[in-house]
Design goal:
It is a single chain. This protein is α+β, with helices and mostly antiparallel strands. The protein contains 15 helices and seven strands. The strands form two sheets. The chain has a four-stranded antiparallel beta sheet with strand order 2-3-1-4. Strands 5-6-7 form a three-stranded mixed beta sheet, with helices on one face. α15 links the parallel β6 and β7. α8 crosses α11 and α10 runs parallel beside α12. The longest helix has 42 residues. The radius of gyration is 28 Å and the shape is elongated. Pfam families: DUF389 (PF04087). It comes from Halococcus dombrowskii. Keywords: Membrane, Transmembrane, Transmembrane helix. InterPro entries: DUF389.
């Protein structure tokens, strides 16, 4: 429920009040101090009716720049409010009901001022770097909670659907600043951790499970970004808390920035490039999915202003078009890489199953099989596979890795390296 307060000049007062009467809205009027030719009109309205009410008042003569305040209220007791609320349970035409102004305000409130934004971006990246090196999911989740990226990641789509170009531009600048700060902070933190001997300097970071999870764009990581953007848009356009969706946004951003920093410090260019590719594609898809979700919820930019904007060939418009083209190329390239990885992963799983189905390996129990490739893998040149299998103590399988390599290489046409790790166990029968 919202309480709208508008300043109405005397010449448009009658038409504004007639409009409210036609809408069955209950209102009160407070005259300004003597000598002023205006009044303040107060009326409660359902959240879903705010945009339509303000539009009707504008048509009735209320100035577009009229003093207007929309506040959240818990309850209201007026003669016709229940009837009005019944018509706007979900908003006009069953759309999500927050107005464009409320949507912008809610998104802006999620982004702290610049100094605090930079501080929290740096702290979240440092915490995520420690979490990856410790292989601790709990620490990484803590970094996501601290991260401030929800507001900046969602404001761009809000600006696009509400004809607020400045909000979109501010959001893109904020996202760029946050990613740069987070990546630099992660790199510095990784350097301190390594050369300060907080972790062994010869640590094989590529073998850390949590690090490996954020070094290659996959369908699962892409799903995180898409769902995070859509969930954030849903929370923004309703009364649902956005903080939970903010953690999902951070899950798609913060660990990847930490993985980039770790790859740089440990001189693992493929790891760093893979994490950077994951970071960029996640950021793009968070923005795209949030935009698509808002459009699906019924938010639309003004057709007239949008047409005028696209027909203006100003330097800003040219730069925006070039950036959009660049992002489109990036998205297509990342989608192609993700599809290549999906096919590679499927082939690996299929061949591992086929080889281990052989009677020679009947005593082996497959624990896991993971496939990955770095930047060169996007071109179909190489890949690596790690298979973990459980065996009884002393059972040798010296040719298993080579046999797996031949099968996978033959199907994928890649120069594949295969590593087989064994988990040994003993088994005692009953009786």
């Amino acid at each position: 429920m919202r309480l709208i307060q508008v300043r109405v000049r005397d010449e448009s007062r009658d038409s504004v009040l007639d409009t409210l009467d036609d809408a069955d809205a209950d209102y009160v009027i407070a005259d300004e101090a003597a000598g002023n030719d205006a009044s303040i009109v107060y009326f409660p309205t359902p959240a879903g009716a705010v945009e339509e009410m303000l539009g009707r008042l504008s048509e009735a003569g209320l100035a577009d720049d009229a003093f207007t305040i929309v506040t959240d209220v818990e309850t209201a007791t007026t003669p016709h409010f229940d009837e009005l609320e019944g018509r706007y349970t979900q908003g006009p035409e069953d759309e999500i009901g927050l107005s464009h102004a409320e949507l912008r305000t809610k998104a802006q409130e999620l982004t702290p001022e610049t100094t605090m934004f930079v501080v929290f971006a740096a702290l979240s990246a440092i915490l995520a770097t420690a979490g990856l090196l410790l292989n601790s999911a709990i620490v990484i989740v803590g970094a996501m909670v601290v991260a401030p990226f929800a507001g900046s990641s969602l404001s761009a789509s809000v600006g696009l659907v509400s004809d607020d170009g400045q909000s979109t531009a501010n959001s893109l600048r904020s996202q760029f600043l946050g990613l740069v700060v987070a990546t630099i902070s992660a790199t510095v933190a990784a350097a301190v951790f390594r050369w300060g001997h907080l972790v062994p300097s010869t640590l094989a970071v590529g073998r850390i499970t949590q690090v490996g999870s954020f070094t290659t764009p996959t369908l699962l990581t892409l799903t995180i970004a898409v769902v995070a953007g859509a969930a954030g848009a849903l929370a923004l356009s309703t009364d649902l808390p956005v903080t939970i969706a903010g953690v999902a946004v951070a899950a798609a951003v913060v660990p990847a920035t930490a993985a980039v920093g770790i790859g740089v410090v440990w001189a693992e260019p493929l790891l760093a490039l893979g994490a950077l590719a994951l970071l960029l594609v996640n950021v793009v898809f968070i923005n795209l999915s949030a935009l698509v979700a808002l459009l699906g919820f019924g938010y639309r930019p003004s057709e007239v202003s949008s047409l005028r904007e696209w027909l203006s060939f100003s330097p800003r418009r040219i730069v925006s078009v070039l950036v959009a083209i660049g992002l489109a190329v990036l998205v297509v390239a990342m989608l192609f890489g993700t599809y290549q990885y999906f096919l590679f992963d499927q082939a690996v799983n299929r061949n591992v199953d086929e080889v281990l189905d052989d009677p020679d390996y009947s005593n082996l129990e497959l624990a896991s099989a993971s496939a990955e490739f770095g930047a060169a893998g996007l071109l179909g040149e190489e890949g690596s596979v790690t298979v973990v299998a459980a065996r009884t103590t002393g059972e040798p399988y010296p040719r298993l890795s080579e046999r797996l390599r031949r099968h996978i290489a033959a199907e994928t046409n890649r120069d594949v390296s295969v590593e087989v790790r064994f988990v040994e166990y003993q088994r005692a029968g009953s009786g």
